[in-house]
């Protein structure tokens, strides 16, 4: 891969549109192992055709089925810790969103009370002006203002 980043966002491992952030090397090894499972002859033909340097799938690959059992266990622990970290990050983000929604809800209630108070004052003022208008309309038309 030509990417210079350390991580790759992909939904291939999880499926169902769930995007998971994977370390680049882990993802590449997993992808090689999966491609090797599909058609080994086709994989060797591709190596020759494109001149690609693809290493064996038994090295550091969780799905490779190699003989390095301690290495596979270490990889599982690393994957578990990374996914656990991602899980706690997501939980933390959701908790922040929930507290933000609760605060917004309280702010909306306060704002509604304030607007109700303002509407009450405006209605009182309108009633006063209507009463003054009625009083003025009953006055004789010829009145000297000076």
Cα distance, first to last residue? 92 Å
Number of strands: 2
Helix/strand-derived category reads mainly alpha
Can you tell me the residue ranges where pLDDT is under 50 for at least 5 consecutive residues?
A: 52-68
Strand percentage: 5-15%
Keywords:
146 residues, mainly alpha, 3 helices, 2 strands
Describe the model.
This protein is mostly helical. It is 65% helix and 5% strand. The protein has a two-stranded antiparallel ribbon. The termini are far apart. It is built from three helices and two strands; from the N terminus they run E-E-H-H-H.
What is shown here, in short?
The chain is mostly helical and 146 residues long.
Topology:
Blueprint: E1 7-10, E2 20-23, H1 24-38, H2 40-50, H3 69-137
Antiparallel strand pairs: 1-2
């Amino acid at each position: 891969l030509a990417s210079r980043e350390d991580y790759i966002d992909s939904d291939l491992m999880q499926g169902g549109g769930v995007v998971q952030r994977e370390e680049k090397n882990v993802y590449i090894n997993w992808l090689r192992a999966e491609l090797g499972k599909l058609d080994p002859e086709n994989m060797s033909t591709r190596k020759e055709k494109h001149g690609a340097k693809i290493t064996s799938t038994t090295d550091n690959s969780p799905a490779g089925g190699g003989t390095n059992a301690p290495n596979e266990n270490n990889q599982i622990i690393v994957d578990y810790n990374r996914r656990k970290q991602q899980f706690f990050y997501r939980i933390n983000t959701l908790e922040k969103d929930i507290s933000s929604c609760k605060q917004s809800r309280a702010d909306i209630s306060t704002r509604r009370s304030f607007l109700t108070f303002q509407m009450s004052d405006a209605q009182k003022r309108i009633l006063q002006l209507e009463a003054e208008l009625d009083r003025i309309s009953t006055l004789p038309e010829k009145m000297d203002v000076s």
